[in-house]
Specification:
Distance between the termini: 66 Å
Number of strands: 0
Structural class: mainly alpha
Strand content: under 5%
Low-confidence stretches: none
Mean pLDDT: 87
Shape: rod-shaped
Number of domains: 1
Bound molecules: fe (ii) ion
Order of helices and strands: HHHH
Largest sheet: none
Number of helices: 4
Length: about 180
């Protein structure tokens, strides 16, 4: 089940559920409870190496999924109207995607020296908060801006239909 609040966009919500699932997997490799003060020091070097490989595979999967998800949202942003509010939204939203991707990459790089449990715990702690806040903030705003622009287009179409109807009525009146 997704931890992220709904944005009102079915496909984005489905992708968030998958992202939450990946984040929840971050500590499944270790028998210690999430957010405990566990350390890898008590485990054998072989066990630590095995855990390191698992966390590395997970962070790679996460980065790949995040890249695809962000690409999907950024494609949706292209259909937003070209105005100051939307341009500012796109700028902030893309920056947030780039920042969190860079943070996960930097954390992954620390895996060569840090304990795998510490890296996985930090990954889960930060990403669990980030995904929820990002979904209820920028993602929901984007969906609202998108829906408003669709409604505006439909309203404009309705106005056009009304104008055409009046125009045609005028024509038929003139021809009588
Ligand atoms: Fe986003
Ligand atoms: Fe998102």
């Amino acid at each position: 089940m997704s931890n992220s609040p709904s944005t009102g966009h079915h496909e984005i919500d489905n992708q968030h559920a998958e992202l939450d699932h990946l984040v929840d997997k971050a500590l499944v490799f270790c028998g210690e409870p999430i957010n405990s003060a566990a350390s890898c020091a008590a485990c054998s070097p072989e066990q630590q190496a095995s855990c390191r490989r698992e966390v590395m595979a997970l962070t790679r999967e996460l980065l790949k999924f995040m890249a695809g998800h962000f690409r999907y949202e950024e494609q949706l942003m292209r259909s937003l109207p070209d105005n100051d509010i939307c341009r500012e939204h796109v700028r902030r939203h893309k920056r947030a995607h780039a920042d969190i991707s860079a943070w996960v990459s930097a954390l992954t790089a620390r895996l060569s020296t840090a304990e795998p449990y510490a890296v996985a715990a930090e990954l889960r702690r930060i990403l669990a908060d980030w995904t929820g806040a990002h979904a209820s903030g920028l993602d929901s705003s984007m969906v609202q801006l998108h829906q408003q622009s669709v409604h505006r287009e439909l309203d404009e179409d309705a106005e056009l239909a009304e104008l055409l109807a009046q125009h045609r009525a005028g024509f038929s009146g003139e021809s009588k």
